[in-house]
Amino acid sequence: MKQSLIKLCLVFAAVVLLAVPQVSQAKELKGDLEIFSWWAGDEGPALEALIDIYKAQNPGVNVINAAVTGGSGVNARAVLKTRMLGGEPPDSFQVHAGQELIGTWVKSDRMEDLTPIFKEEGWMDVFPAGLVKLIGTDKGIWSVPVNVHRSNVLWCIPANLKKWGVEAPKTWEDFLKIAPKLQKEGIVPLALGQNWTASHLWESVALSSLGAEKWADLWSGKLKFNSPEMIKVWELFGKILPYTNKDAASLSWQQATDMIIDGRAAFNIMGDWAAGYMVTTKKLAPGKDFGWMPSPGTSGEFMFLADSFGLPKGVANRDNAVAWLKLLGSKKGSDTFNPIKGSISARKDTDLSKYNAYLQSAAKDFAKDAVAASLIHGAAANETFVGSFAQVMEMFLKSKNAKATAMACQQLADKAQIGK
Prior knowledge:
Layout: H1 2-24, E1 31-37, H2 44-57, E2 61-67, H3 74-85, E3 92-96, H4 99-106, H5 115-121, H6 123-126, H7 129-134, E4 136-137, E5 140-141, E6 144-145, E7 149-150, E8 153-156, H8 158-164, H9 172-184, E9 188-191, H10 195-210, H11 212-220, H12 228-240, H13 253-261, E10 265-269, H14 273-281, E11 291-294, E12 301-305, E13 307-310, H15 318-329, H16 331-341, H17 357-368, E14 370-373, H18 383-399, H19 402-415
Parallel strand pairs: 1-2, 1-3, 9-10, 12-14
Antiparallel strand pairs: 3-13, 4-5, 6-13, 7-12, 8-10, 8-11
């Protein structure tokens, strides 16, 4: 009896020893992983930090960093469109969370539903419900958010303001009072870059004029783009533009930021990736070497956007891409990437001790402020509207005709089926 029991135990132990490696050993990934994004140059280090983690976790995978330069992804989206329509999608690509993806590639049935991954990784509870709603539809969840950015931030160098005897403006009325003085002294009141940065400035002006509720009404169709309220937005924008630099069309957003760092300009309105640029590239300390506040007239409002990655249908290296998406949504990936990028984590359990003073303040505001979706960065409107809005902006920059521009905006909204 004892011998039989011993034999039975030995057999059981052998079965357990054979079974353990099969259960615990993860599938070793091999082949390529092509990551498509617009994070190049000054925005590259944060992406490279993620790639380093991925390579350590998956040493058998050859990672191809297919970054396309160009502010806010303008150039990258053009290349992506060619590849998607040509049947050669990258394994995973960067996209602004919201309608930029849903209104284009989800609508045309070219993306995989990521709901199973969200449930497997426990992300339904980790990401804010409002964010999950933004990246999903009634048919699925379509991308993994990497971060949360704030669009409506005014940047300045406190030492320069003190030297010039001015304070950062809380409203556009305040700005218009101090701008002539600065301009007279040879200082550009508000640094501006190429076309998309003008649109970026415009959405902050619109938010200040309308408020978060009416801004949302634009995208639901409740407020018309040719309404009196919207004509006033363009009129206010027209009053601000004379106090920007004349060479704006030739500058990148980084070069516009450099203008405030160098003391050639007093203020710049840009997303908080500017903080990442000033900290990582320019080695400036937030709160000491540079300052910030909500763009004029938007205190208590957080204009929001998020970078995310999706999974196109039929990609060559699907398993490798899924592993990439799981890293992006993880706490380790998020808290590695965002402090370098100059953004806050999309997760609710982020370790804020790893973030600098600016990012801690942004996280605090995001938790309490009224959240408004960014237009130019793909959260509020589909790609049809966003892509053609540049032409509307160019029209206004040349004509300064508020009423005609508002009418053109409404025509574009009809074409893009905004609110329908």
